[in-house]
# Entry
Amino acid sequence: MRLAIVGCGSIGSELAEAADGMTEVKRIYLLDQRGLAAEALASKLKKAEAVRSIEGELYHCDLVIEAASQNAAREIIPKVVGRGVDIMIMSVGALVDDDYRNNVYATARNTGARILVPSGALCGTDALSSASVGNIDLVRLITTKNPESIEDVPYLKKKGIDLSGIKGPTVIYEGTAREAVKLFPKNVNVAATVSIMGVGFDRTQVTVIADPAAQANSHELIVKGDFGEIVSKSSNVPSVYNPSTSHLAALSAISALKRIIRNDWVGI
# Structure
């Protein structure tokens, strides 16, 4: 298998290092808007090389993995699926626009490309997927993070929210998933995953809590419907490379890649 990884930050780097050790992976193409980042990562690996664009690699690439940003994802997804190549998306918030998402999925159906979304830093998505076959009355996601991991969010600055002044758990956002993934593009991509799998972006409720005592990024998923009730919570150690990203998100991508390579779908 030949891979292209777009984004050489914390997730992209961990994923590339893991893929480099997989015998099934023959070549890894690395792309980052910071060209030096891709070159530096490639120099540490045996099977990787830095490239300047994704289009040129689609002719001989089996899978593209986006691990960059929502903006980057929105740009490359149509190009990849339009060529009939599978894509794994980490910045799932890129799919928040309904027309864009529907067009992308329609294109993928026509070309035979697969759009793959790992569970990321969240647990309980398998049960949510099962529940969505029936009637769901409520989907709520409660995310708690240390203020340090969200200090650069423009929405908080616009609202005049001083994170340094927070002394205890404080709700800094409460509303729909559609708005949440736009306001916190690097922090609550799991809200987009939950929305797509469940009741949509407008019916999925999201609460973001800043807690200076939090040593983990936690996500609590609550689902109620005809099936009963789901309550699941993950407390994730932040990535050593990026405190706004959970280490579990990178592990989820690595696990998904292994399953794709081995055609192993236990637990779907």
